[in-house]
Task: inverse folding
């Protein structure tokens, strides 16, 4: 019963938030862009079902925050078996990365409050990483796209930096969001 109440609350709140701003900005008319980028009612319901009404663990609490982030940004995320939430903006049409491959990427990392903690886009230069040396969220997420593709990964802390955190902004047990563009595969080995 609590899950159903939460579902309707989340859907109502999301619709109110997404429609409210558009109407105020456009005199009550929702722009074509906003309509195209809005989640359907079915998508909202599917995502709302991922929310745990009374989270009993930090993982469930983080999942709730990440699902809400996806809803707020109109991303029809999927959930993998590991718990990674991801949204493939474009699949790409180049090669796929191997388990020990090296990639050139452009990326931006966010906290759930939208603060950017790192961005190769802002530096104006792509970064190169060996896939088995990055956090689990990246290892998994990059497997879903090909060269030229872009993916958003929403990772609970178990798939990120866990209990150790990273730097000043990424405290221990911090969920993270990344926009990752796979520019090219620099080296590929299985």
Result:
């Amino acid at each position: 019963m609590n899950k159903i109440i939460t579902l309707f609350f989340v859907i109502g709140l999301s619709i109110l938030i997404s429609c409210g701003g558009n109407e105020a900005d456009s005199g009550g008319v929702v722009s074509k862009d906003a309509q195209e980028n809005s989640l359907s009612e079915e998508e909202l319901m599917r995502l709302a079902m991922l929310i745990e009404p009374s989270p009993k663990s930090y993982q469930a609490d983080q999942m709730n925050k990440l699902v809400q982030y996806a809803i707020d940004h109109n991303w029809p995320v999927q959930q993998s078996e590991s718990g990674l939430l991801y949204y493939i903006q474009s699949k790409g049409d180049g090669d796929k990365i191997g388990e020990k491959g090296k990639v050139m990427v452009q990326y931006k990392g966010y906290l759930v409050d939208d603060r950017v903690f790192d961005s190769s886009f802002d530096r104006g230069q792509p970064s190169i990483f060996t896939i088995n040396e990055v956090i689990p969220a990246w290892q998994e997420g990059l497997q879903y796209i090909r060269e030229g593709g872009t993916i958003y990964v929403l990772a609970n802390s178990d798939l990120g930096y866990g209990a150790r955190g990273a730097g000043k902004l990424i405290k221990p047990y911090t969920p993270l969001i990344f926009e990752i563009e796979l520019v090219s595969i620099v080296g590929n080995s299985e």
